Structure formats: structure tokens, C-alpha cells
Prior knowledge:
Elements: E1 3-5, H1 9-24, H2 31-34, E2 35-37, H3 39-71
Parallel strand pairs: 1-2
Amino acid sequence: MGIMTDNATNNDTFIDSLTYWMEDNFISFDTTEKHFRCFAHVLNLSVQKALKKLDGRLKKILLLIVFIIFIY
Length: 72
């Protein structure tokens, strides 16, 4: 069993607090093995950043595709 979170800082704070509470109550909880970052969230952030960098080029490609469609 583990905990999956996005990358928000407040989730790191929560995991730290949970770890301290578990240690105080003699419960084993290894954050390196039990805390998971949501891969879909990380992937989404990466794609959004890449799309922002490609924004001008993507518009040119879209215009080219539209131009080709209307020619044929």
C-alpha cells in the first residue's frame, strides 16, 4: 500500500507530517517506497510546457495542413 499525490508542495508537507506521526506511533512507513508521484500529472505538465514552446510552430503546421486540404 502507498500514497499517490501530484507534485504540489503541500503534499510533501503532508507526507512529512504523516511520516513523523507514524514514527511516533511505531508504524513503519518508508516514503521512498510508499509515496508515489502521479505519472499522468507529471506527463501532463511536461506536455503542456512542450506545447507552449511549440505554439508558434504548431500554428504554422496547422495553417499548412488547412492549405493542403483546401487545395486538394
